[in-house]
Amino acid sequence: MKIIHCSDLHLDSKMKSNLDSKKAKERRDEILITYQNMIQYAKSNGVKIILIAGDMFDKKNITVKARNIVLDSINSNPEIDFIYLKGNHDEANFVSDLEEIPSNLKLFNSTEWTTYKYGRITISGIELGKISDYEIYNTLMLNKNDINIVTLHGQEVKYDQKDKAEIINIGSFKNKNIDYLALGHIHKFKQERIDSRGIYCYSGCLEGRGFDECGEKGFVLLDVNEETSKITSDFVPFSGRRLYEIDVDISKTTTTLEAESKIDEAIKDIEKEALIKIVLTGKVDLNTERDINYLEKKYKNIYYFAKIYDETSLEIDYMTYENDASLKGEFIRLVLKQDLTEENKRKIITTGIKALSGEEVN
Hints:
By secondary structure, the chain is an alpha/beta fold. The chain has 3 domains: 236 residues, Purple Acid Phosphatase, chain A, domain 2 (4-Layer Sandwich), CATH 3.60.21; 74 residues, no CATH class; 46 residues, no CATH class. It has 7 helices and 19 strands. It has a 6-stranded mixed sheet, with helices on one face. A 6-stranded mixed sheet has the order 5-6-7-10-12-11, with no helix packed on it. A hairpin with a 5-residue loop joins strand 11 and strand 12. Helix 6 runs antiparallel to helix 7. The longest helix is centred in the first third of the chain and has 24 residues. The protein is elongated, with a radius of gyration of 26 Å.
């Protein structure tokens, strides 16, 4: 049996942190299209179950369009079971107004484990947050002779907690007869062992939405062999667009054109449909000519979206300004007299020199 494990679709996400209104709408539509393309992939590849490990939607109020697309994808594909675990962003109850829940839409609750059985394959899940960790970990009873898939939405304990997500203690699932623990919430693919029998996996998000979600995005395709009890899992890159964050060291450059040449070399293999964040790094001379607005405009005209962050620092020989009568010299001498660490003095001087030179200060 083939199963898709996906999560963190965040359909109807605002997408306005970097994009203007027009492109934000385009990206919202593109994410819906990628979701529909995943359904088509499932149909074309004989997938029988799509397991959504939380955060199908992004906020409480969803558009009629998004709701209709999801419901139509379920109703028009009765041969596929959609097993949906709500996540911490899933405040929208898109089935609450239905007179009847589609028979191929399977849900979980927050008070006890729910299990769906397909021959020897079991899929169990629970929404975290309502009952204690003790109850969660100690009420999960799985038959060692079954092929056991478990799904949860939350944050592995070794990650910094965010978004009020529930914590998942992977160690508490050792020796629980789990073959595959399908997780949601972390937006990057990750797969590791639970114990000698099972593995746990974050499928990551289906589409990157911001520059904290760079790299390949997609879903995991499981192929479960009931005769051998073997599960094979493969990450399937599937996003319509990718996001990149590229560090470009422009040390020793003295002009905008030289910096431009360094950037061109660093991003030459990135597809023009991508969203890119270019971070300029290194140490540059005080008298370097560098026009960030010019550079940003150039790359915005080439790529779907581009943003440049200048995180360079100035390479300054402070002693050359010891007797300098200019405003820059006076400013540097004033900072050097302060009771500050050398690092803080350098940061203040770098920022101040940029401001005095008329550069944008972030």
